[in-house]
Structure formats: structure tokens, C-alpha cells
Design brief:
about 375 residues; transmembrane helix; 3 domains; five-stranded antiparallel beta sheet; transmembrane; membrane; disordered N terminus; 5 helices
């Protein structure tokens, strides 16, 4: 009995020594997992709050930069422009279509060290302006068109051109005497100004001016959506000083290709070439009228007359005019009713000749000799 009691007590001691460490390990693992879970949860909460703060910050900037101010009868200027000289505010047209004008000014360069070399810092404000203009005007905008020193960018709408001052736009075909301009700043920092042309109570966008105070500004926000909406608004079409619509076909002197020149009632001129494979007219560069032949049909006759040759047709037994086309000799006759030259095939005249044909003078001499009996 005593031996049994001793054996039971020994087994209990062994059980106690084997189970106690495992229980403590389980408790410590559980506590560690609880701590890891709490830290991960706090990290997730922090990321969510940071994301919400990021969205709220950018929404605040968006609404701040897109707030429309009251319209005025006179253009306004950002506060920093009052320190500029009048000569620095004069706009200069750029590009081929004259839709964009800019003004530039000097600035202090910001240098940064990259790979041990001092270079000028990037200009996020100018890069943003270039991207906006490229999307609106659909032309490639580089450093030559919009240099880093640009401080004013004027973009005119169709049927308007930019003036020499900011927010100044002139209708190409004028307007009624009752028309007037109105101006509106966009954004609390006055970075955008739109000019309206009011005719009969209807406001038409004449153009948009964008102002750049600091080209290195990384906090700059231009509401591209508003600018695109303004530039895509309905165009103003004047009813004053309308011109006669004309269409003419000319020929380029350099390569003798036909060009269609059209002008609408508003004076817009377009030059187009016809492509037979696509059956469409494609626009080409507008050249001065001196580069074209105004009467291509008449010039064609002069050109064709230089290539005419006179010879005796062996088949018809008479003098004919010959024109060489695509390696073949064709009879050429003038059609008075149609007012143009017509061409006919002749198997006899198209045969290769071993000797050159007699000239017209030799033919006349031979005819005279024959009639005189020589």
C-alpha cells in the first residue's frame, strides 16, 4: 500500500513538472499575439486616418483653387504682379496659330546638389502649365514655347486673339456697339482669370489667363477641369463685317500639286490637298499666294505646249501634233468647245523610229521643191 502511495505521488510530481512549463509558454504566446494584434490594429487605424486626412487636404485645395469670384468690369491682377515693371507684363504671341501669348520675367534660380553636381531645381508650376496647354491646344509644348521664366500665359478662344496685356482679348470680326467685357478671378490665390465677351445678355468666353508667381512652387494647384470647361464652351460668332465665302483651286509651283483654298465668312482660310487613296481632303501648311499658280489650267496649257512635237503620221498621211505620255506617242488635238487638249492613240506614230522625224522647216522645203518640179 505504501509503495502504491509513493508511486502515485511520484507520478503527480512528474505531471506537475511537465505541465507547468507548457501552461506558462501558452500564456506568454497568447500575450505576445495580443500585443501584435493591438499594434497591427493601431497601424491600420493610423493608415486609414492618414488617407482620410490626405483626401480632405486635397479636396480643400481643390475647392479653394476652383472658387469663382464675382465678375467685374475691369481686369484684376494678383498682388505679386504690382511689383513687376510694365514692360514685363507685355504679352508676346508664340506658336504658329497665335492662340497663346506669354510674358516672362527674371527670377532667382534654386540650385540643388545631385550626384555631387549643383543643378537647377525642377519647376513643377511650369510643368503643370505645359501639360494643361498641351491638352487644350493639342500641340507639343516644350521649353522653347513655354520657358521656365514664364509668369503669364494667355490662351484665346476661337474668333478671338490675345492683346498685349493680360486678360485682354480682341474679337477678330468685331462686335455690336452694345457688347462689353467682364472679368472673373478663379481661386482664392487669383491664379486664373477668365474674360467674358457679353453680347445681347449672353456671355461668351473670350480667353483665359494663367498666372505663375513662383515656378518652383510645389503646392501650386490649377484646376484643369475648369480651364478645359471654359475653353470648350460655345464659341462666339460675329455677325458684323462678314466676308464672302470663296473656294479656289490652285497649283503649287514647287511640285505642281493641286491645292484647295477655302475661306469662310469669318475670314478663316484653309489649304487642303486631296488624297485619292483615302478620298479625303487633308489640311496642309498655309503658304503665301505667290507660291501657287492661280490659273492652273492655263499654266497646264503652257506646259503642255512646250512638250508638243510636229511630225507626219504615216497612217493618216498628214501633219499631226504629238505628245509623249507614259512612254507613248499620242496625237494631240485642240477641242474648241471644251477648251482643252485631247489625246488619241496611234499605232503608227507610237512605233520607235530609227531616224529622227523631219522638222517642220524641212517638210516645207520639200513640199515647195515638189510643187516646183525639182
Amino acid at each position: 500500500m505504501a509503495s502504491i502511495i509513493v508511486a502515485v505521488m511520484a507520478s503527480q510530481n512528474r505531471l506537475r513538472t511537465t505541465t507547468t512549463p507548457s501552461t506558462s509558454n501558452f500564456t506568454s504566446d497568447f500575450l505576445e499575439k495580443e500585443e501584435d494584434g493591438s499594434s497591427n490594429f493601431l497601424l491600420e487605424i493610423f493608415c486609414i486616418l492618414a488617407f482620410i486626412a490626405f483626401i480632405i487636404f486635397h479636396l480643400h485645395i481643390y475647392f479653394k483653387s476652383s472658387r469663382l469670384k464675382e465678375r467685374t468690369l475691369f481686369p484684376k491682377s494678383p498682388d505679386w504682379m504690382f511689383k513687376m515693371l510694365d514692360s514685363q507684363k507685355i504679352l508676346t504671341p508664340i506658336g504658329d496659330n497665335g492662340q497663346i501669348s506669354i510674358a516672362t520675367r527674371g527670377y532667382t534660380q534654386q540650385l540643388v546638389v545631385r550626384s555631387g553636381v549643383s543643378v537647377e531645381n525642377s519647376k513643377p508650376a511650369i510643368e503643370t502649365i505645359r501639360r494643361i496647354i498641351q491638352k487644350i491646344v493639342e500641340i507639343e509644348v516644350n521649353n522653347e514655347l513655354i520657358p521656365g521664366s514664364t509668369c503669364i500665359v494667355s490662351i484665346s478662344k476661337r474668333n478671338f486673339r490675345s492683346g498685349t496685356r493680360h486678360a485682354e482679348f480682341v474679337p477678330l470680326n468685331g462686335g455690336p456697339s452694345t457688347s462689353h467685357f467682364e472679368y472673373q478671378m478663379i481661386g482664392e490665390d487669383d491664379r486664373i482669370q477668365v474674360t467674358y465677351f457679353v453680347v445681347g445678355g449672353v456671355s461668351y468666353v473670350a480667353g483665359v489667363c494663367i498666372y505663375v508667381e513662383n515656378p518652383y512652387d510645389v503646392r501650386l494647384h490649377y484646376t484643369e477641369t475648369i480651364i478645359r470647361r471654359l475653353m470648350n464652351s460655345p464659341d462666339y460668332w460675329s455677325k458684323n463685317e462678314l466676308e464672302e465665302e470663296t473656294t479656289s483651286v490652285v497649283r503649287r509651283k514647287s511640285n505642281y500639286e493641286y491645292v484647295l483654298i477655302t475661306k469662310n465668312r469669318y475670314g478663316d482660310v484653309k489649304h487642303s490637298e486631296f488624297h485619292g487613296d483615302k478620298k479625303s481632303f487633308d489640311p496642309v501648311d498655309i503658304l503665301p499666294l505667290s507660291a501657287y499658280i492661280n490659273n492652273p489650267e492655263r499654266e497646264d496649257l503652257k506646259f503642255q505646249a512646250k512638250n508638243l512635237r510636229i511630225r507626219i503620221c504615216e497612217f493618216q498621211k498628214k501633219i499631226v501634233m504629238i505628245t509623249e505620255r507614259n512612254g507613248h506617242n499620242l496625237h494631240t488635238m485642240w477641242n474648241e468647245k471644251k477648251g482643252k487638249l485631247e489625246y488619241f492613240e496611234c499605232a503608227s506614230c507610237d512605233l520607235p523610229q530609227e531616224a529622227p522625224p523631219p522638222s517642220y522647216n524641212s517638210f516645207i522645203r520639200n513640199s515647195i521643191k515638189k510643187n516646183l518640179g525639182f
